[in-house]
Write a structure and sequence with these properties.
CATH class of the largest domain: Alpha Beta
Distance between the termini: 21 Å
Strand content: 5-15%
Radius of gyration: 20 Å
Number of helices: 6
Number of domains: 2
Order of helices and strands: HEHEEEEEHHHEEEH
Structural class: alpha/beta
Strand order of the largest sheet: 1-2-5-6
Shape: globular
CATH superfamily of the largest domain: Type I PLP-dependent aspartate aminotransferase-like (Major domain)
CATH topology of the largest domain: Aspartate Aminotransferase, domain 2
Length: 215
């Protein structure tokens, strides 16, 4: 997220109640500037750290800087429980409310009773146990991802028109996904087709939400 674009957005929508900051591809957003802007407009900050577990911003874990942090344990993430995720916050009262909603909003009554709309977002004990076990190897996963990224950069970085993810002094990424940009006559689809012939998987990065057919 670009802090300058965020400031412009607040000029247009000064009463926005929340901002979701996405740490893309394991790279941390510029959180100090983003937090300063959001505090000025009294907006809640939700960090989407789905891709950045193990990433640090100025020595702090991403997902622990805003008011809330969310993490993903999907099958393609740096550690996985095969699905599900995690919500964190220092606000115990609001976390308790989120847990209440996530467990079907069941009232503390003798009968199964519901006074609010609830959802079944609970993670089973078995899945949670897998996640706790995987957390122990998070540092090893980050180290391996960094090795993969640096190998790609060493082998491909000298090619004309190929760019890699930027690195800034306040960011210690987890290198979750190695991505490149192309600047020249070669189209991404050309590379996909050549790699497919060698049985090497590749794909474009995310399509923007507003370009999705449903929206």
């Amino acid at each position: 997220m670009c802090p300058e674009a965020l400031e412009q957005a607040f000029h247009k929508y000064p009463h926005a109640k929340a901002v979701i900051v996405v740490h893309l591809y394991g790279l941390s957003a510029d959180m100090d500037r983003i937090m300063e802007i959001c505090r000025r407009y009294n907006a809640t900050v939700i960090e989407d750290a789905a891709e950045s577990l193990g990433t640090y911003y100025k020595g702090k874990h991403t997902g622990t800087i805003g008011d809330y942090g969310i993490f993903s344990f999907n099958g393609n993430k740096i550690i996985t429980t095969s699905g599900g995720g995690m919500l964190v916050s220092n606000n115990e009262e609001k976390i308790a409310k989120a847990r209440f909603w996530a467990t079907q909003s069941r009232d503390p009554a003798r009968h199964y009773q519901h006074s609010e709309l609830g959802f079944n977002y609970r993670m089973s004990n078995v899945i949670a146990g897998i996640g706790r076990g995987q957390l122990k190897v998070l540092d090893q996963r980050v180290k391996k991802k960094k090795y993969i990224f640096e190998y790609y950069k060493k082998e491909l970085g000298s090619l004309t028109g190929v760019g890699f993810m930027p690195s800034v002094e306040w960011n210690q990424p987890n290198f979750w996904l190695s991505t490149i940009t192309l600047n020249g006559s070669v189209r991404p689809v050309d590379i996909f087709e050549i790699l497919e012939k060698e049985k090497i998987e590749s794909r474009p990065v995310w399509k923007p939400m507003h370009l999705q057919p449903f929206l």
